[in-house]
Amino acid sequence: MNYNGARRPKKKRRDPVIPFLCIIIVWLIVLGAVFLFANVRGNAPADTSEPGGTNAAGSGTDPGDATAAPAGTVAGSTETEPPPEPVTYREATVLSAGDIIPHLAQIYYAAAAGGDGSYDFTNTFKYVKDVVSAADYAVVNFEANLAGPSLGYNGYPFFNAPDTLADAVKDAGFDMTLYANNHCYDTGFDGFIRTQQQFDAHGLDYIGAKQDPANAAYKVVDINGIKVGMFNYTDDLAWGNTSPRTINGLPIRDSDLPYMNVYNLSLLDEFYSEVDSVISAMRSEGADIIVAYMHWGYEYNIQHNADQEKVAQALCDRGVDIIIGGHPHVMQDVDVLTSNSDPQHKVICFYSLGNFVSNQSRHTPDFDVMNMDYTDAGLMVKFTVRKYSTGEAMISKVEAIPTFIHRFVAPNWNYAHEIVPIAAALENPAAYGLTSSNYGEADASDAYEKETALLGGAVEAYNDSVVLPAVGEPEG
Question: Which residue, among 428, 379, 436, 371, has the nearest Cα to 402 in the 3D structure?
């Protein structure tokens, strides 16, 4: 109340909520500024022009998320990891052919073809030269001696051929001869050694015999950067008799035996021990696969025998990758073996490739043996070795190439012997000389049917059994 008696107006009281809200707002502003400043200094702005960056809508990967490292980098680092090396592989093809046996009829023809005292065998191989040369490496069984003219040239039973036979073998595209066979000692020790010297002189590798007992009983060949180990042994055909040691009925001097790769059926443990040493030595030299070339079996039998099967299984169990045989002069059946020590290890065994060239034929006069109509049918085998950059190696594919020896009277009145690859020849008989006789095409067709029956689907079965790595691409 004032002095004049009037009542004084009351003062309006302040609302206490308003100052409290103001304080909160100020603190929020300060905290927001601090947070914003920290983000500006610690993080780069998102690139909205590239996929994966923060866009205006806030989508994409948060560049400030330390748990998410960009692809190709180590988490928490800007260092880029190198991409993994691709798995690659390289390949090499090896071709093997059967028995070369130079009977006198072939030597007479070569003399007429050469003239002036020379001998020319090249016509024999003209139709298979392209097939042989196409392989990266080619091998053939040389069942004869090159003992020189002083001993006289001869056919069965003691073979001695002119040195130019080695010229023809080399010209046909072969790189290696197999010399462990029952005729290697036909001209004695001197002829045995001279034959090896002629292989050297003609640039042919060879296995199965030595010029020095200290030399290796095998060869490891580098083919396209793949190391292929090869060895060659012959059954001495003594049927277990060991005293004296013989080969093909000829006594072997004790001093000569260390020069030959021979085995005896009564001394198989000794043979297996030697094979173990050979395989170990080849592996130590880096051999990626092992090939066994065997001279064995009964002549003119188209089925292998129990002794062949026993030795073949022992070789399979020891890690050999493929077995190729000769000696019976006819092709024999083919089998796919499984190792007893490693069920994953499969080995294809060609018990006999038959004759590659000889004078034995269904048309040869005075030649009467069982299965004589198989003697002009032979087989070439080509297999592909694949090696991966991981170091894994295998035989990835096998191919059988049936051949036929077309024996006919040539214009010079000597018997010509021309080897033809049957499948190609039957498609164009004239181009492969089958029309030079009135039976060439029919006999070639019959030989093809016989060989196909003996193959029995074994090649396809082996190829189907091969398991290739899931990754890999050819080099280059």
Answer: 379
Residue 418: partners with Cβ closer than 8 Å, 6 or more residues away? 123, 124, 126, 127, 405, 406, 433
Please give the model's pTM, rounded to 2 decimal places: 0.83
Q: Which helix (H) or strand (E) holds 32?
A: helix 17-42
Q: Which two tokens stand for residue 291?
A: 């090939």
Closest CA to 355 of 417, 306, 438, 311: 417
- Position 23 scores a pLDDT of 53
Split at pLDDT 50, 70, 90, the class of 365 is confident
Tokens 């592909």, located at residue? 384
Phi/psi at 68 (5° precision): -110, 105
251 preceded by cis ω (within 30°)? no
Q: List, in order of start, the domains of the chain with CATH numbers.
A: 91-468 (3.60.21.10)
How confident is the model over 424-475, as pLDDT tens digits?
Answer: 999 999 999 999 999 999 999 999 999 999 999 999 999 999 999 988 899 8
User: Strand, coil or helix: what is 145?
Assistant: coil
- The per-type count for the chain, helices as H runs and strands as E runs, is 10, 18
Which of 184-202 are b and which e, b meaning 16 or more Cβ less than 10 Å from the residue's Cβ?
bbbbeeebbbbbbebbeeb
Task: Quickly count: other Cβ atoms within 10 Å of residue 99's Cβ.
Answer: 26
Please check the confidence at residue 126 and state whether its pLDDT lies above 90: yes
Distance CA(324)–CA(178), nearest Å, equals 11
Structure tokens at 198: 């002629």
Distance CA 296, CA 350 (A): 12
